[in-house]
Inverse folding.
């Protein structure tokens, strides 16, 4: 679906995934582990067990160390975004036969947070996730979302529906498709301007009382909405876009989460693959690819944003990891309650992404990195004031 022109000969090949195994070997040899800034920090002088992926039974994420809290909900420090498996967002929908091994491969490697939504597909993503995780249901956290009117298999961002009766209907459907009796984390996908957030929180509170839902989340909500919802039913997580090419949550949203003890789930943490060094200034996308309509991927924005990628590449080289790993490690290092959920349809990308949990970024390095970024404006990112209203 994506058309990426090949690099002309004069453009050097950057560190790529083929270097990952080498990087992982170095990380093991030097005992490089999760950052001291993070909740999964190791004890000094006690490096974690080697994290080679040659033994499929040994998870890449450790159940003891690579865990984070979203409010009171314990999850793996990196989750798996399942949207692109069926939604057609970046690639044609993949078959269950292809995707179930990716989801189960994630479980084997220690991932314990899986993200879906009723609109992905619509519905088919929840079915896939439900089928893949049924054998390990009690070992994982399943997150899904409601909030849109879906009619005859179609939905769009302008047709929101968070009426309490619709939330209850959506939950019954999600439970069936997910083959489960409870949803661990239920998000309102987008704020509905026609339904007071207190009513939404009240409806979810009832579902929690009934045992059908365990935790409440919001997505792309403003600080004011988060506060109002939290007063009715504690919010465990806010899921919003956050990456090195979309830093708008730094404009007050992260502060609000910190103050209220709400975890932050970073979606599109790889900037829709831009930060995985997948594209260059000649990259163009098929009409049906979401990136065609995303401002950061317009030709002039791509050129401008490569400056960010250059800094990421430099730091990835310095750490002997891939740009994707560095981009995710940066999120993990920023706050111990941030959990990125990179999306992938490929097991080798998943393995690469999980390697981010073992990249150490110190507080001084974070400062230095931020300084390197400070002179570069991301083109196509949202305006800073957008955090003051619901998206
Ligand atoms: N709350 C919301 O409104 C919202 C909105 C968007 C997304 N989400 C959630 O967030 C999750 C993640 O976001 P996203 O998938 O849109 O964006 P993303 O994680 O930033 O990027 C996904 C893209 O990166 C590629 N990729 C992943 N790892 C890679 C690697 N190591 N090397 C090269 N390419 C790599 C994937 O392609 P391959 O398949 O080829 O690996 C895919 O095209 C979604 O799955 C969804 O669950 C939520």
């Amino acid at each position: 679906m994506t058309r990426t022109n090949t690099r002309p000969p004069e453009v050097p090949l950057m560190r790529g995934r083929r270097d990952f195994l080498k990087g992982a070997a170095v990380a093991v040899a030097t005992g490089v582990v999760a950052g001291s800034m993070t909740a999964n920090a190791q004890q000094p002088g006690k490096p974690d067990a080697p994290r080679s992926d040659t033994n499929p039974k040994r998870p890449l994420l450790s159940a003891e160390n690579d865990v984070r809290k979203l409010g009171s909900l314990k999850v793996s420090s990196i989750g798996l975004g399942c949207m692109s498996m069926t939604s057609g967002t970046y690639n044609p929908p993949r078959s269950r036969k292809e995707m179930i091994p990716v989801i189960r491969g994630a479980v084997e490697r220690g991932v314990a947070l899986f993200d879906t939504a009723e609109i992905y597909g619509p519905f088919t993503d929840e079915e896939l996730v439900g089928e893949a995780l049924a054998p390990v249901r009690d070992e994982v956290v399943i997150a899904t979302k409601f909030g849109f009117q879906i009619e005859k298999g179609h939905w769009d961002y302008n047709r929101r529906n968070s009426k309490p009766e619709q939330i209850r209907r959506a939950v019954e459907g999600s439970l069936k498709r997910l083959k489960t009796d409870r949803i661990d984390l239920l998000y309102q996908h987008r704020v509905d301007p026609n339904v007071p957030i207190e009513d939404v929180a009240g409806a979810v509170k009832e579902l929690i009382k009934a045992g059908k839902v365990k935790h409440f989340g919001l997505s792309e909500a403003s600080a004011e909405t988060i506060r109002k919802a939290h007063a009715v039913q504690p919010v465990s997580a806010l899921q919003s876009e956050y990456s090195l090419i979309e830093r708008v949550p730094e404009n007050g949203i992260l502060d609000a989460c910190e103050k209220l003890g709400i975890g932050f789930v970073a979606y599109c943490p790889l900037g829709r693959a831009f930060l995985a060094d997948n594209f260059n200034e000649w990259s163009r996308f098929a009409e049906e690819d979401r990136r065609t309509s995303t401002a950061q991927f317009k030709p002039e924005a791509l050129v401008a944003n490569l400056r960010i990628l250059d800094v990421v590449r430099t730091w990835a080289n310095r750490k002997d990891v891939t740009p994707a790993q560095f981009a995710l490690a940066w999120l993990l290092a920023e706050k111990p309650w941030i959990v990125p959920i990179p999306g992938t349809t490929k097991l080798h990308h998943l393995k690469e992404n999980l390697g981010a949990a073992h990249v150490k970024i110190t507080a001084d390095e974070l400062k230095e990195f931020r300084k390197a970024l400070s002179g570069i404006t991301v083109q196509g990112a949202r305006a800073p004031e957008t955090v003051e209203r619901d998206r």
User: Anything to note?
Assistant: The longest strand covers residues 213-219. Residues 299-319 form the longest helix (21 residues). DSSP finds twelve helices and twelve strands in the chain. Residues 2-52 have pLDDT under 50 and may be disordered.
